[in-house]
Structure formats: structure tokens, C-alpha cells
Specification:
- The chain is of the alpha/beta class.
- It has 19 helices and 32 strands.
- The strands form eight sheets. Strands 13-14-12-15-16-11-17 form a seven-stranded parallel sheet, with helices on both faces.
- Helix 18 crosses helix 19 (691-704).
- The radius of gyration is 28 Å and the shape is globular.
- The two termini are 51 Å apart.
- Bound molecules: adenosine-5'-diphosphate and zinc ion (ZN) (2 copies).
- One zinc ion (ZN) binds next to loops.
């Protein structure tokens, strides 16, 4: 008898195992490893994935598979292996890990059609629009130009996109269509990613870039780190490696932290590599994702650039993985499965024999320690790194902008130059404070100060969205002396208006760029010729290549150091170096100001000197002493629930059980965390040699305690956490 083992796509922990099914004769040809199947389970019919075709482990009569879902392709074998590895490494149920490798749209919604066939919910078709194609030479000079653009795109494109790229209008296109210079008709495009004009100018590599390409092209089995100062031309190095993979018929995967924040790198890859590049971002509709997915499977798209989930792109033959800006914490997913795309990339590259390159101007200590590194020490255009001045805020008058910075801003704007200011705090002010009695507006549900936002000012909770008005009189003592304390990005606007009245000011933070396209609009506005100030949260420091920036400043450089996290210094350091990287990109002499309350701190001092290797060596020494990564792995267990004593008791019990199970591991905690949405929380941190040796036993402890613990308590296990 033929049997298969199926993983049900159901999150219940009790169903987190493989189930045996018999394969009826009618389905024998259609069932493959990785197939999506409908199968009877606990009285219903659920979607599952065929994992293996072994002899059944169950001795009784087996239920029949109900159907093979043929409207979604099977999951390729190497991705199945990867999902199973994610499940083991991150101690997460397999169903949750299979979801990240399912084709778009195949997320568990099964429908039964009248004929009895099981199908997935149908995918939306592409958008109908006016499409231009078939350019023919002729017509006026203006027509020729449009024909030239359409010809160089090499495929049918939306009329609106063509108008944008060729700087023309729809009436002109219609006139051209009438003269037979191109074809215009309603339809659905096969590729719906926006077209980009080809850029065939390939720069000559600098000597350093050449050497880097050579080293990175050697022995593909060895993952490497490309440490290149900001502006050193890392992207050009990636482009050569991608071209090399392509010439051998292999695909390339380029991971970036948040593609919405750095659309330029996608544009640059598309412009240089042309068709075949898929830009994978969260703004794609399910239909667009499904079509991109099909192109990747078919091999007609061989380069994918995207954020962390793109690490699971279904390349049939993968030759290269690039993890750009590898220091960025957003590679870690903060919901289940809590995978780290950098770690998954490592595993995937090893499993599929792909070359692996991590790149950053401020690499993580983990990568510096573990990987051979190749360095680009100079900017590609020969420009110097900007001069950095540390401003001791203890010597300055109150206010977000110090005197030296104010003077530099005034001078820069007088010369029509640009400035970038980084303040990692949203809102008008950090908190509302009564100067008479010390009352601070706090969230009643989360035990954190409420942040002052907007005009008219409101008090908002950044954890749960709780919203209250700012009291005129202190609710505690009745005093009228309630003030805002600690400027945020919104408040900076006022401070700036006082320093550089009338200057063009552009704010960048997640409150300002909620709508799609708003970020691009604001960056375009900043690029316009003439003086301007770009200010905002760390968004302003992310990989933008902006001209004429001669002043940059981190307003609250020791802000990250207030977090009780062993990565706090690393964050403070990389913020300074990354922001400095945005200044002087075209060789303009630039100055970076670092405002700090403790200017002698290591992160500040070394950040100001761009002293990356020194910082990393010191950081590694400190981590070695404490056994922190890379000298060990951490697993964080967080218990949450509505009753403080129950949460505390459970965290204690979990900690004791882990200690008994893992006598060699070191435990920290339980430590009470602030409440979130009325849920009390308590965390235990476990440190040990290897992640797998921690994760599985901890998972088992947590599962064993399910029976004993009150139902409403939740326990989250996070392997290699980014926040500790
Ligand atoms: P990074 O990613 O290392 O910060 P980029 O790849 O963005 O640097 O390159 C910085 C700038 O230098 C870009 O404008 C790029 O076009 C340019 N550039 C890169 N390599 C070269 C080269 N070999 N010759 C001239 N310009 C280059
Ligand atoms: Zn008061
Ligand atoms: Zn709250």
C-alpha cells in the first residue's frame, strides 16, 4: 500500500507532528513530496503538505488523502528541508514554518467546488490597464524619443509608466498609436513590476573593488563578510557577483533590511540587470506576488531583491545570496516563526551550494568574529569620510540643538547645502511631566510613559495605541505646571524653525510616512536643488545616497545606551557611523555632529573616529568575558498573562525546570518587564553553547508545563533574540 506522511497546516501544538495517509489509486500520479493536499483530520478536511513517502508508523487502517490541490505548485524539496530546519532551530511548530515557504495565496484557505474538487481561493488577476507595445521608428523627434524609451524597455509596459519614463503625455501616445508608431490597448501585463530604464554604464572597478570581487569569487563554500565604508561601492561588487552567477545560469538573492526605506538599491539592480529582476516588497498584492513567484520558479526571473521573507524565494538553482546592511536588526522576525533571515541565509547557502556574502559598513561582532572579511577602506569616488565633532551636551544650554550644530546649520543653508538630523524618538515630546510633583502621564495598560504627539497635542502609548488628552492641570496635585519633556521628531520642527527660520524642512518617521509613496515623495523633495533639512528617526540613516549633504547630526547619540541590552553599544555605534555615511557623498567637505551626554563612552568615542575594527575588537572582548554571542547563544522565554503573581510563579517554574534540564546553561532572571496591553510579563534568558542544544529542551519544558499552567498564560520562546 502506498502511504505518505503529511504535516497539517494547523497551528495547534497537539497537531504538530506528521500524520500517515493512504494514497488512493486515482491520486498516485499527482502526489509528490511537497504537494499541497486536502486530508481528513479530526472530523474536518484540512490543508497539509506531503513531507515524505515512507512506510506508515501507524499500524491501523489509514485514512485516504482526499485530494491533491493542483492549483498551487508543490513546495520544492530544498525549501521543505529549510522549513524543517527553521522549525528545529527556532523550536517552532512545523506548520508555522511551512507557511513561509508556501506559494503566495496558498495559506490554508481550502474551498470545495461543486464537482467535489478541492481548490485554494482563486488569486486576483493582474490589473487591467492601457498597455503600450511594439515601437516602430519614425515620427517627430519627440516621437522618436518615446519610441527609443519603449524599445529599450524591451517589453510591453503600462501607458502611465511609459509617460513617466519618457516624460510625455497620454494624448501624445494616442497620436503615435494612430500613426502606427506603437500599439496601445487595454490588457493585463504579464510582469507587473514597474519598468525602469536600462543603465548600461558599467563603472570600472576601483582596485579595492576588484580585489574584493576576486576574493569573494574564490571558494564558493566559504561565506564571507564585505566590510566597506559607506559609499565604498559595495553594490557594484554585488552586481559583479550577480552577473557572474547569471552567466552560469544561477539565480541570485539580495536581502536588504527594509526595501520600502531604500527603494534605490532595487532601482539600481533593475536598471543594470534589466528584466529578470524581481523586487519583492510588502506592498505587492497577492496576485503580484504569485506571478513573481511563478517567474522565479520558472527561472524567467533570476534575481530577487527583498526583505527578510525573500530568503525563502523558490529559486530552482541558487548561486548567490547577498545580505546587505547585515547589522540591521529587522532581519529578525518578531512573530512566529521568529527566524533570523541572516541565519536562514547561512543554512540555505550551505544546503544549496550558493555563495554567501554579508555586507555592511558596521558589521555585527558575530560576523566579524566568524567570517573571513574583505575590506573596502575608501569611498568609490575617492571622497574623504566626514569629520566628526562630539558635542558635550552637559556644556550646552537646554534644547535639542546645540550651539555648534545651530551655527553649522545656518552656514550650510546660507550656502544652499543640505543637512540630515537623526533623533530616534517619535512624537512631539518623550513625556508630559508635572514640575510641581513629578507626575508623569503613563499608559494605564502598559506601565510606560505616554508620548506627546501631534497638534493639538495628545498623549499616545507606543505599545497599545492608548490615547488621552494632555491635562491642563496635573491630575495628581492640580498644579498648572505640566510641561513636555524630551524633544521628539515632531517637536524638532519647532526647534529647527527657531534656528533656521524659513528653511525647507522634511520629516521622516513612521508617523510621517504611513501612506505608500510618501517616503519616496519626501526623499525627492529633499533631493531638489537648494538648501534643506531632512530630520527624523533612524529612517534617515538607512542607506540613502543623497547629494549635497554637508552637515549631519545625531542629536541623542547616547539614547540607545539607556536600554539595558547587551547590544546597546553596538546600536549607538552603528547609528553614528551609518549617519556619518550619509554626509559628503559627492566629495563635499562635510561635518557630522554627535551630541552626547557622556561623550567619553566607547561607542561615541570610536564612532566619531569611524574606528570600526577597534570597536568590534573591544566589543568581542567584552562579549567573550560574559559569554554573549558569538561566544554562546541566547534563548529568551517570556511569560505573559493578566495576573502578576501567576506570571511570576510560572516564570519561576519555567526557569527552575530549564535549570534542571540544562545544568550547564546559565540562567538570568526571571525579570519582570513592563506590562503591555494589561498583560504582565516576565522574562528568563538562557545562555548556552549551541542554539539547538538549548532550543529543543526549552521547548519541551514549555510544552510539558502546558498541562499545569493556567490556561490564559502564554509563553513565547525566542531563539537568538535581538532584544534582550
Ligand atoms: P555603498 O553601498 O558601499 O555605501 P554604493 O554602492 O552606494 O556604496 O556606491 C556609492 C557611490 O559610488 C554610488 O553613487 C556608485 O554609483 C558609485 N560607485 C561605485 N563604484 C564605483 C566605481 N568603481 N567608479 C565610480 N563610481 C562608483
Ligand atoms: Zn503635579
Ligand atoms: Zn499602552
Amino acid at each position: 500500500m502506498r502511504a505518505v506522511q503529511v504535516a497539517p497546516l494547523v497551528d495547534a501544538r497537539a497537531l504538530d507532528r506528521l500524520f500517515d495517509y493512504a494514497v488512493p489509486d486515482g491520486l498516485a500520479d499527482a502526489v509528490r513530496i511537497g504537494s499541497l493536499v486536502a486530508c481528513p483530520l479530526r472530523g474536518g478536511t484540512i490543508l497539509g503538505v506531503v513531507i515524505s513517502r515512507d512506510r506508515p508508523s501507524y499500524a491501523g487502517a489509514l485514512a485516504d488523502l482526499a485530494a491533491v490541490v493542483t492549483d498551487a505548485p508543490p513546495i520544492p524539496g530544498h525549501l521543505l528541508d529549510l522549513a524543517r530546519w527553521v522549525s528545529r532551530y527556532y523550536a517552532t511548530p512545523l506548520a508555522a514554518c511551512l507557511r513561509v515557504v508556501l506559494p503566495p495565496g496558498a495559506d490554508g484557505a481550502l474551498r470545495r467546488e461543486p464537482g467535489g474538487r478541492w481548490r485554494l481561493a482563486p488569486l486576483p488577476k493582474g490589473r487591467r490597464q492601457l498597455i503600450a507595445s511594439e515601437p516602430v521608428h519614425g515620427g517627430t523627434a519627440r516621437h522618436q524619443a518615446v519610441v527609443g524609451v519603449l524599445a529599450s524597455l524591451g517589453r510591453p509596459v503600462g501607458a502611465a509608466d511609459l509617460c513617466r519614463l519618457a516624460r510625455t503625455t497620454l494624448p501624445t501616445l494616442r497620436a503615435m498609436a494612430e500613426r502606427g508608431l506603437l500599439r496601445l490597448e487595454e490588457g493585463v501585463l504579464e510582469h507587473d513590476d514597474p519598468p525602469v530604464l536600462h543603465d548600461r554604464t558599467i563603472p570600472t572597478l576601483t582596485d579595492e573593488q576588484r580585489a574584493a570581487v576576486d576574493t569573494l569569487s574564490a571558494d564558493p563554500a566559504k561565506p564571507r563578510l564585505l566590510h566597506g565604508v559607506t559609499g565604498s561601492g559595495k553594490t557594484e561588487v554585488y552586481l559583479r557577483l550577480i552577473a557572474d552567477a547569471r552567466s552560469r545560469g544561477l539565480g541570485s538573492l539580495v536581502l536588504v533590511p527594509e526595501i520600502a526605506l531604500t527603494p534605490q538599491i532595487g532601482d539600481r539592480l533593475v536598471a543594470r540587470l534589466g528584466a529578470g529582476v524581481v523586487v519583492w516588497h510588502s506592498g505587492l498584492s497577492v496576485g503580484e506576488r504569485a506571478r513573481a513567484d511563478a517567474r522565479i520558479r520558472a527561472g524567467t526571473a533570476d534575481v530577487v531583491i527583498g526583505a527578510r521573507s525573500a530568503v525563502f524565494a523558490p529559486f530552482p538553482r541558487l548561486g548567490l545570496i547577498v545580505v546587505d546592511e547585515e547589522h540591521d536588526g529587522s532581519y529578525k522576525q518578531d512573530s512566529s516563526p521568529r527566524y533570523d533571515a541572516r541565519q536562514v541565509a547561512y543554512r540555505r547557502a550551505a544546503g544549496e551550494g550558493a555563495r554567501l556574502v554579508y555586507g555592511s559598513a558596521t558589521p555585527r561582532p558575530e560576523s566579524w568574529y566568524a567570517l573571513e572579511h574583505v575590506t573596502l577602506t575608501r569611498r568609490a569616488d575617492g571622497a574623504a569620510l566626514p569629520n566628526v565633532k562630539v558635542v558635550d551636551m552637559r556644556t550646552q544650554a537646554a534644547g535639542a540643538i546645540s550651539r555648534p550644530l545651530a551655527q553649522a546649520l545656518q552656514a550650510a543653508l546660507a550656502r544652499d547645502e543640505k543637512a540630515i538630523l537623526l533623533l530616534n524618538r517619535r512624537g512631539l515630546a518623550r513625556q508630559a511631566l508635572c514640575r510641581n510633583c513629578g507626575w508623569i502621564g503613563r499608559c494605564p495598560r502598559c506601565d510606560v510613559p505616554l508620548v506627546v504627539h501631534g497638534r493639538p497635542a495628545r498623549l499616545l502609548c507606543h505599545h497599545c495605541g492608548y490615547d488621552a488628552s494632555v491635562p491642563n492641570l496635573c491630575p495628581s496635585c492640580g498644579s498648572a505646571d505640566v510641561i513636555r519633556q524630551g524633544t521628539g521628531t515632531q517637536g524638532l520642527e519647532e526647534a529647527l524653525a527657531a534656528v533656521v527660520p524659513g528653511a525647507r524642512m522634511i520629516r521622516l518617521d513612521s508617523d510621517a510616512v504611513v501612506r505608500r509613496g510618501e517616503l519616496e515623495r519626501r526623499l525627492r523633495e529633499f533631493r531638489r536643488p537648494g538648501g534643506a533639512v531632512l530630520f527624523g528617526t533612524q529612517m534617515v540613516a538607512k542607506g540613502h545616497d543623497l547629494p549635497d549633504v554637508t552637515v549631519a547630526a545625531v542629536l541623542d547619540a547616547d539614547g540607545p545606551l539607556q536600554q539595558p541590552d547587551f547590544r546597546a553599544e553596538e546600536r549607538a555605534f552603528s547609528l553614528i557611523v551609518q549617519l556619518a555615511g550619509r554626509a559628503g557623498r559627492r566629495g563635499e567637505p562635510a561635518t557630522v555632529f554627535v551630541q552626547a551626554w557622556e561623550p567619553d563612552g566607547r561607542a561615541i568615542r570610536l564612532g566619531a573616529r569611524h574606528a570600526v575594527p577597534d570597536f568590534l575588537e573591544g566589543e568581542l572582548e567584552r562579549r567573550r568575558e560574559h559569554g554573549f554571542p558569538p561566544f554562546g547563544h541566547l534563548v529568551r522565554v517570556v511569560v505573559d498573562g493578566s495576573s502578576r503573581p501567576r506570571v511570576q510563579d510560572e516564570a519561576r517554574a519555567v526557569a527552575d525546570a530549564i535549570a534542571a534540564r540544562l545544568p550547564d546553561a546559565r540562567l538570568f532572571g526571571p525579570v519582570a518587564l513592563h506590562r503591555v496591553r494589561e498583560r504582565h510579563r516576565s522574562a528568563v534568558l538562557v545562555r548556552g553553547e549551541r542554539a539547538v542544544e538549548l532550543a529543543l529542551p526549552i521547548r519541551e519544558v514549555v510544552d510539558e508545563r502546558t498541562a499545569d499552567r493556567p490556561h490564559e498564560l502564554r509563553i513565547v520562546v525566542d531563539v537568538d533574540p535581538q532584544d534582550t
